[in-house]
Amino acid sequence: MKRQAVILAAGEGTRMKSSLPKVLHRVTGIPMINHVTNHATQVGIQDLFVIVGHGAEAVSAALPENAKTVLQAEQKGTGHAVMCAMDQLDPEGLVLVLSGDAPLISAETLEKLIHTHEEGAYAATVLSAQVENPTGYGRVLRNEETCDLLGIIEEKDATPWQKSIKEINSGTYCFRGKDLLKILPKLSQDNAQQEYYLTDTLALLKNEDQPVGICCIENPEEIMAVNTRVQLAEVEAVFRKRINHRHMVNGVTMVHPESTYIDHDVTIGKDTVIEAGAVIECGTVIGEGCHIGQNSRISDSFIESHVNILHSTIISSRVGEKTSIGPYAYLRPGACVGKRVRIGNYVEIKNATIGDDSRAAHLAYIGDAKVGKDVNIGCGVVFVNYDGKEKYQTLVGNHAFLGSNANLIAPVTIGDHAFVAAGSTITEDVPGEALAIARSRQTNKEEWNRKSRD
C-alpha cells in the first residue's frame, strides 16, 4: 500500500519567544523538522506533505527536495491542517500524520505504528505512551473493561478525573486514506478552543463502527514535543545521549559524554578518544585512533586517522594522518594539512596547504599559501597576504626553512631548500638553496644610554 505522510508545521510557536519559526530551531545541528522528514523517508514514505503557515517561506526553504508544501493560511487546529492537504492525498494509500515539533520519534517506532495499523486492519491508529507528568497532552480514553479506545480528550476540555490519566496522545497517527478523507469534513469546532481537532476523527470513526487501534510505545522520550526553549534543551539532551551512545557502542571513548556535543551526521572511527567539552559538527569525519582534546571544536572537516588535536578549532578543513594540532591552533576554512605535520600553539591557517612532515610550532599566521614538504615555519612567521584591497598567494618549496619573525609579503615564492633568516621581511622571490637576509645591519651606539641621562 502506498505510504503518505502529512507533517504539521504551520504553528507560530509563541512560547518559544522567537522570530524564527518553531520547527526551524536546531536540534543536533539541523532544524528539528528535518529530523521528522528524515525519519519519515526512512520508512518508505512516497508522498511527503508539510503543512506550512507561520514563516512558510523559511520553512519551505529548509525542507528536503522530496517534500511538498501545503499552505494553511489560517491556523484553525490540527484537523484543519490536515484538511488543507485533502485534495492531494491518495485515498487508496495509508496516511501518517506527524508533528514537526516532535523530532525524537524514530523510524523504528513509525514502522511499528504502521505494522500495528495494518495488522489490525484499523481505519485509524494512534501512537500513545504512559508518562509520569501528562500536563499539556491530550489524554487517551479507554473502555475500562475491554481497554479499547473510546477517544482522546484535549487537556483544556478534560475533567479533573480525565486529567489524572497518564496515557497521552503523541500527536502521531496512521489512517487508511479513504477513511480519513471521509471523516475529516465531519469535524466540528465545538470545543474550548473553537478549533478542528484531528483527535475527534477517532471518536467519529468509532461512531461509524470503524475499528480504531492504539500503539502504545515503551519509551515516552520519543514523543517529546518542543513548545519552549526549556523543552528544546531537553530534546537536544536526549538526542545527544543517543548519538554519544551510538558512537561509544561502535568503539569511541568519551571521557565525559555529558559534556561532549556531536551532531547527528558525524562519523568517528574506533579507538578515537574524545575528552570533555569537545564539539564536533556539520558532517565531520574523524578516522581511527585519534585524540580530540578538551574544548576542541571541529566543524565540517575531514580528520584522518591517528591525529592528535588539543584545545583547537578546525572549520571546513582537512588534516592528514599522524598530524598534531594545537594547543590553541585555529584552522580556518580551506586549510589542508598533510601527514605527520606539527601545527603548534596559536598557529592560524586559512586557505592554505601544508605539505607532509612540515612544522609550524607556534605563533604563526599562514594564509593563502602553498607550503611544501618538510618545511620549518619559525615562531612569529607571518604570511602577509592582504594589501588592503586584494589577497595574494605565497608559495614555499620543499625543505625550506623560514626563520622566526619573518614576514613573507605576497605574492612571493620561496624555492626548495631555501633559507630565510630570522627577522627578515621578504618582498622578492628567493631561489632554491639560497639564503635570504632582509633586515638592517645592527648598529651599537657606545655609551648612548649613559650620555642620555646626563
From TrEMBL:
Acetyl-CoA binds at N385, Y386, S404, A422, R439. Its main location: cytoplasm. It is found in: Cytoplasm. It catalyses: N-acetyl-alpha-D-glucosamine 1-phosphate + UTP + H(+) = UDP-N-acetyl-alpha-D-glucosamine + diphosphate; alpha-D-glucosamine 1-phosphate + acetyl-CoA = N-acetyl-alpha-D-glucosamine 1-phosphate + CoA + H(+). The keyword Cytoplasm applies. Residues 230-250 are annotated as: Linker. Catalyzes the last two sequential reactions in the de novo biosynthetic pathway for UDP-N-acetylglucosamine (UDP-GlcNAc). The C-terminal domain catalyzes the transfer of acetyl group from acetyl coenzyme A to glucosamine-1-phosphate (GlcN-1-P) to produce N-acetylglucosamine-1-phosphate (GlcNAc-1-P), which is converted into UDP-GlcNAc by the transfer of uridine 5-monophosphate (from uridine 5-triphosphate), a reaction catalyzed by the N-terminal domain. This is Bifunctional protein GlmU. The lineage of its organism: Bacteria, Bacillati, Bacillota, Clostridia, Peptostreptococcales.
